[in-house]
Design brief:
The chain is an alpha+beta fold. The protein contains nine helices and five strands; from the N terminus they run αααααααββαβαββ. It has a five-stranded mixed beta sheet, sandwiched between helices. The longest helix is centred in the middle third of the chain and has 24 residues, at 76-99. It starts with 11 loop residues before the first helix and ends in a 7-residue tail after the last strand. The model has no long low-confidence stretch (mean pLDDT 85).
Length: 224
């Protein structure tokens, strides 16, 4: 059955207008993005099939161009559109953090870190440099690899903080394994960074670990 034959309040677009985007399931949101289905399948049917094929919305959005375009009903144009949507989301969240202190909206900070790091297939160590009102100055990925295998240099973090005249910062990294639990190495590097920054009178506010849909705060765990 075509979506136009559905009850009006069950059609994804009308449902979004009436109830808001949060009321829609992943397949319904994806169907709005796809706009049309393929022969024999509505946009919602196609969306459900794609989500099952890729293992969920997150995996679909993180798929490489080659992998994405192999799916029936998708192609370069849709890939470009999706990447534009993802990047707009990241920029929206970054703008929100620049306009108010990060801890005035802890949820926005977590959403921003999820948007930046959860799809990375390798470990990325990044820093949010903050002004004296704890608004975001710059977000920068600095180190790649693993904390044990690829060096994280506190002096480089501190040097960049001085360049930006940052008063405080939050460090964050992802666990591609999907397990967000902080490791002993995470705790050790946090201590080294905090000590290096303390010499410059710069505060380390938190170290966040991102894995899948989770963001774990070492400060909340009492590990900072």
């Amino acid at each position: 059955m075509a979506i136009t034959d559905w009850p009006v309040d069950e059609r994804p677009r009308e449902k979004l207008l009436q109830r808001g985007a949060a009321a829609l399931a992943d397949a319904e949101l994806l169907a709005i993005f796809l706009r049309t289905g393929v022969k024999g399948k509505s946009a919602v049917d196609l969306a459900r099939e794609l989500l099952a094929e890729h293992g969920g919305l997150s995996a679909l959005m993180a798929a490489s161009q080659e992998r994405f375009c192999r799916s029936h009903g998708l192609g370069d144009a849709k890939y470009v559109q999706l990447q534009a949507v993802v990047e707009m989301s990241r920029r929206y969240l970054a703008e929100d953090l620049r306009q108010r202190p990060v801890f005035a909206s802890a949820a926005s900070t977590r959403q921003f870190l999820l948007a930046q790091l959860r799809q990375e297939v390798r470990e990325v160590f990044a820093v949010l440099y903050l002004d004296n009102q704890h608004g975001l100055l710059v977000y920068e990925p600095l180190f790649y690899g693993t904390i044990d295998g690829a060096a994280v240099y506190p002096r480089e973090i501190a040097r960049r903080a001085l360049e930006l005249h940052a008063a405080a910062l939050i460090v964050a990294h992802n666990h591609p394994s999907g397990v967000a639990e902080p490791s002993d190495a995470d705790v050790r590097i946090t201590k080294r960074i905090r000590e290096a920054l303390a010499l410059l009178d710069i505060r380390l506010l938190d170290h966040c670990v991102v894995a899948g849909p989770e963001v774990i705060s070492l400060a909340e765990r009492g590990l900072l």
